[in-house]
Write a structure and sequence with these properties.
- This protein is α/β, with parallel strands linked by helices.
- It has one domain (4-263): Alpha-Beta Barrel (TIM Barrel).
- Helix content is 40%, strand content 14%.
- The protein has helices at residues 17-26, 36-44, 49-58, 77-96, 116-130, 148-158, 169-175, 222-231, 245-248, 252-263, and strands spanning 4-8, 31-35, 65-69, 101-104, 133-137, 165-167, 190-195, 237-240.
- Helix 4 (77-96) runs parallel beside helix 5 and helix 5 crosses helix 6 (148-158).
- The longest helix has 20 residues, at 77-96.
- The chain is globular, with a radius of gyration of 17 Å.
């Protein structure tokens, strides 16, 4: 598989689930990342995930990931059990819409990283039984897992063939880890590369998801990140993931089109 472009549906958040699928299809994307909250809301309104899968097929769209499971890492007792039950529900949704991965997010607060591998392995085994691969995510603004190194340590400790990481320029910059850490991650351990940029109007350490901008519109070293990713042999989806409220107020079809044009400046050929 060569590099192909994907739309994370957060980029056009105000649209309905079916509208998001339609926009991704009509603007030339090959895939779309879907959020479990959207899938749940669709079902609660009387919709069917079979209809979602049909809409995806009508537009020729793959679903690399469903987003996201929470609470599974670092929790204990009843809270841990409840988090795993909710994770199972979201994993089943992911399978129903054809997702290969479900993104596994870390908690906000610090925890004992030494237990991370065991918690992740437990989640991977659940995913294996359901038919989807949980992909470990680091989030630059979290106090728990905010660098590639921390996430990779959890992956290594889990020692499981289905383990993988979500890679993301914004979180690499926000988390403060060195770009060279990208070279530590084998290409076959990367579930997907999210793609975005960070503005230069405030320090990275003060930025939030809402600050993200289109690739090339910020000051992130995207060409160097691209070079490091390709040097590892990555082949897969690169997904436009923004949470910018200013973009949500615009024509969402145009947002998706512009995003595609911006992304085509990277990973070409």
């Amino acid at each position: 598989m060569t590099i192909q472009y994907c739309l994370n549906s957060s980029t056009i958040r105000p649209a309905s689930l079916m509208e998001k699928i339609d926009i991704a299809g009509q603007t030339g994307y090959k895939a779309i990342e879907l959020w479990n909250d959207d899938l749940t809301a669709h079902e609660e309104r009387g919709g069917s995930l079979k209809d979602v899968k049909q809409a995806l097929a009508d537009h020729g769209l793959s679903v690399p990931t469903a987003i996201a499971v929470h609470g599974w890492l670092g929790s204990e007792g009843v809270a841990h059990a409840e988090a795993l039950e909710e994770a199972k529900r979201k994993m089943e949704q992911a399978v129903e819409v054809g997702a290969e991965f479900v993104i596994a997010s870390p908690p906000m607060d610090p925890f004992d990283l030494a237990r991370g591998g065991a918690d992740y392995r437990e989640l991977l085994e659940i995913g294996k039984s359901i038919g989807v691969r949980p992909a470990m995510e680091y989030l630059g603004f979290m106090k728990s897992v905010h660098t590639i190194e921390q996430a990779w340590q959890i992956v290594e400790d889990a020692n499981h063939p289905d383990s993988s990481l979500i890679m993301d320029p914004f979180h690499i910059l926000r988390g403060g880890g060195p770009l060279e850490s990208i070279a530590k991650i084998p290409a076959d351990k990367v579930a997907i590369w999210h793609w975005n940029d960070a503005p230069g109007d405030k320090p990275f350490v003060e930025q939030s998801d809402a600050d993200r901008v289109m690739p090339g519109d910020g000051v992130g070293p995207l060409q160097e990140i691209e070079r490091l990713a390709l040097a590892q042999g990555y082949e897969g989806f690169v997904s436009l993931e923004l949470f910018n409220p200013a973009l949500w107020e615009k024509d969402l079809v145009e947002v998706a089109k512009i995003g595609m044009e911006k992304m085509q400046g990277y990973f070409a050929g």
